[in-house]
Request: fold
Amino acid sequence: MQVKIDHLTKKFDDVVAVSDFTMQFDDGKLVALLGPSGCGKSTMLNMLSGILPVSEGKIYFDEDDVTNMPPQDRGVGLVFQNYALYPHMTVLENIAFPLEIKKVDKKEREEKAKEMAKLVHVDQLLDRKPKELSGGQQQRVAIARALIKKPRLLLLDEPLSNLDARLRLEMREEIRRIQLETGVTTIFVTHDQEEAMSISDKIVLMKDGYLQQEDGPQELYDDPANLFVANFLGNPPINNLTGYIKDGYFVLEDDSGRIKVNNENAKENQQVVLGIRAESALIGTKEDHDLEAIFDQQYTMGKEELAFLKIGNQQIRIYLSSDYKFQKGDIVYLKFRSKGVYLFDKESGVRI
Amino acid sequence: MAKDWIKKFFIYLFLTIGAVVMMFPFYWMISSSVKTAAEYNSFPPVWIPKNWLDFSNFVKAFQAAPFATYFLNSIIVTGSSVLLTGFITILGAFGFSRLKFPGKTILFSFLVAFMMVPFEMLVITNYQTVSKLNWIDTHYVLVIPFMTSIFYTYILKNFFDTIPDSLYYSARIDGASNWKYLWRVMVPIAKPSLVTIMLLNAISSWNSFMWPQLVINSDRFRTVPFGLFAFMSDAGSDTQLQLAAATVSVLPMIVLFLFARKYIVSGVARGGVKG
Amino acid sequence: MEEKKKKKRREDSGYIFNRKYEPLIYLLPFAIGLLIFTIYPIINVVIMSFKNGYRLSGSYNGIGIENYTYVLTNKYFLSAIKNTFIYVFTVVPIATILSILIANLLNQKIKGISFFHTAYFLPMVTSAIAVGISWRYMFNKKFGVINWLLGLIGIGPIDFLGATAGVAPYNMLTVIIFGIWNMMPFTIILLLSGLQNIDPMYYTAAKVDGASSSTIFRRITVPLLAPTIFLTVVVNMISAFKVYNDVIPFWAGKAGALGTNLYTMVYWIKETFYSKLRLGQAAAASIVLFIIILFFTMIQKYIQKKTDY
Reply:
């Protein structure tokens, strides 16, 4: 099912939680609503499920206007951050509960519940109570319960945030697998960019109730619309060097170095931020380099090392192959790739 | 090591002395209930009656006064009070905890303030009310005036408040009505709280004395404590018969207590109101 | 700000799920009972108390404070107030002190604790009228086990229940002893739960610092238990001011051996309205009782607020 939202806005008294969103979520896709806490992503999800009334704008499921439709009539499945499993019911009863409400007869609903349990791999745990399950298992049960009534839209609120790091990896792949297997249009909310990047077809990045950018994960990473998007995506976070434009060069704010920029939109003397992804900074030579940096320290991160360098009074993180052996204070010549290097207006954050 | 042993010894010693004092009236009641008139009237007192299995006092007591009727009345009244008050409390607590309506918070704090008004102050008007309703000498009069309990509603509402909103939304999105959600999800989850409330209610209903004394005149509707009182004030009855009747009358509550001590104690600890 | 927003959000969403009249249906039975048996009586008792000489028949002679001047000058009501205060200010402190000691013993990790719990808590669920019969026998002057025990140490026999030459000096003592026994289980439960709510971390920390057990009791247990003790005292005082049942078993429902010497406030109110049908005066007396209780409730609220850690 395709979801369209049209100038969707939510106000709590004077606070605007979601401001004027217009977009569509395509059929059968997994979309992440991403953003820092308080950005309005959960509000958006709750408006889609119908828990929250809409202030302005419209929501369409395919051609149906569901803006004022009560939640139970929308055909959505919702998985809460805390899973919201009924503690007094077994796994089987939990999964079958939506059908119990629909007065499906016991045999049939148990059969369907078992099918669902199989899909999410909890068919060994049917007689357990929620408190006897691990977080990941509870999550699976919650998803099965949301899916059993064949919803047109599956909504997941921070599905992984209550899990430990190892389970999180496992569950996010599971969510992807289940979504692909069932083909249900899915929207999930997360504040974790890695989560969003790794499994979604599309990311909607929000901040303070405003849409920042929506696109595929790679597109978002490669082509950020503004400094916030660039900063929010990627680990380690993108390096920001502040400076200004002079004679077609980016000049560091303390005048300790400059780089030629080929960007006709950059105005003379414009205050800018140069964003450089850690993987886009390579080690050059004395003869061929963009900036000189001073080696500070490094951390081992498995196969790579992350090095901290100083450029003038600013700092930059780059990946460093372990072939290089620098000492604190050594001069490092940096060469930047053209990909992963962006220029932003300092004040507005807009990409130049 | 030695110090520990001495400490333990004294703990046991004091606890035992205290326990004996607390339990003694019960022992005295039970043991004296099988005493013969001679044993009863002997001094120094008879500690251990000769014939423990002599239930003649019980038989005589039940012949002298309609204790079977009193018991039946108490069971009817306590049972219906527990059910009716429980039902109304569940609905009320759900209304205050889960449903939204304007002025709810203010209304509820008013109710909590009413909790400090003692029943003794309401008793005069309530007596007039039930007289006007012609409820004197009925079972309702012992049940209906207590159908609304702010205190129990308050306890249950507080428990309901701890059930996460997400369960509610989840159930509602799945199509459950408020009614269905209440009985299928909230009530089962709140079972410990509910059991506690019902037990406290049963205890206070069973032991209720002053109100029955006011509104029951006929022997046919007397409950156990009031029936016992009437039997006791009756000049012709022997104390050992009274003790036999008293023993039987406290038995249900003792059994209840032995089986549900944890619930009762936790309820009392939380609410701080004596039954 | 964030907090407020969250709250607002929750409020906001609730309305979607209930139809306008729905809360009303759930609260209706509750409201009916409340209106008829709590709110109306509260209003009515105040009105009644100002209807001079209001009687069951509904007759009264004018509006005024005559009922109050009557009760506050009535010899028996004044003696009821006095008796009630004596009862409250002996039973509550003694029961509290004994309960603190026992609660501390019950809070130790020892075997058989659940037997002791049962022994100490049981009187809470049994009717004062029923067990009172046993106490009456125990207090008996001639055959009573208490007088036998006192006789062993050369005291007595004491005439707990009777009166000689128009005085009954020991009647009050009888009710007080019975009252203490009745009050203890409840008090122990509250104090024990207060003790169990003290985080064991404090004890561990103090032990690590090398504090002796008496220091721990004095410097940690007592201060941390203080709010519970205050609370218990006030709750018990409120219930003790309403003393009625404790008097009933000993004199076949009469107020003492002389029939009038052990009036309590509730007893007097009950008799005035029920036997004498003087509703206005009973109402005024119950307002007096309420004001006393209110005063102690306010103290309780104040203490609770101040000691809320």
